[in-house]
Amino acid sequence: MTPLDSPVSLPPSRAAAPAPTAERWPVAEVEKLLALPFPELLFRAQQVHRENFDPTQVQLSTLLSIKTGGCPEDCAYCPQSARFDTGVSDQALLPIDQVVSAARDAKAAGATRFCMGAAWRGPKQRDLEPVLDMVKAVKALGMETCATLGLLKDGQAEQLRDAGLDYYNHNLDTSPDFYGDIISTRTYQDRLTTLDRVRDAGIHVCCGGIVGMGEDTHDRAGLIAQLANMEPYPESVPINSLVQVEGTPLHGSQSVDILDFVRVIAAARITMPKAHVRLSAGRTQMSDEAQALCFLAGANSIFYGDKLLTTGNPEGDRDRALLQRLGMQPA
Ligand code: SAM
Ligand code: DTB
Ligand code: SF4
Q: Does residue 242 line the site of ligand 1, with CB under 6 A?
């Protein structure tokens, strides 16, 4: 059997999408993708990737935690929740000059996008105002801007757009079925409402999830299907491998087979052909070879810089060496 006559039928492209009520990707179809023989899945992902992107290019985003720790939410993976004793110390909102200087350094090191993260349930109006100034200042450096500030209230996405925000990151994290095992202080629907506000304001949507929280394959397929069935699907899809932090409830979870992680990347690529799929948290634990497989599976973006929000990320030197070893270029 050739890859093209294998059991999983590819739904029509977005251009030829069926009636809006029909799901482009039923969960069962994504499960079939995840269950394909590895070489077949990677071949499919490569085909889709090459039809839509130059496979040698990787987009680089740098993260900065602009407000760290003390978060009232109970996301079981997160070192910044005030409910868990993780050793992360609370820090007030950074002054704007520190943010701009970090963005300038990121640009000089080769990043094209700068993402500002805050450990809030969501911003109050008095929190948002200084962030709007940060967005304007980072944009003025000639970088793409991204923010992840939690749930947005009506009108806040428009203010961010007017300040020059290009992307808003807000993750669904996992499937609707498994979500309640991970977070109790905000619902799946709360997240979807924020994503709608971002989309309606005309900001690009960055939305993905985490692998390795004890979910099963059905949940992984459920997350990918949720993302792929959004109308339109997100422009940017971060796939995080859980970073296990001592003190969080998920510390000690069974770690994921890296090949299963690669499968999730491939499924994201196949179901969201034009999205940037970001190989996100968890790279410090991955070998160069594992990351190379992720790129082959269609990942074409990474977080670049030696820190994520509170945990580590590979040093810039290591990433530059990796890309050079693979003959790939930052974009
Ligand atoms: N507080 C905001 C929110 O939750 O939307 C923004 C920051 S929050 C840290 C952004 C995302 O980081 C989470 O949705 C989650 O997907 C990811 N994340 C947080 N802790 C993580 C961990 N230990 N491992 C992997 N991903 C993590
Ligand atoms: C995303 O999906 N991953 C990033 C970003 N969006 C904000 C965050 C990863 C955080 C990992 C844990 C930490 O460093 O605190
Ligand atoms: Fe707070 Fe965001 Fe961490 Fe959840 S993921 S505890 S909302 S900082």
A: yes
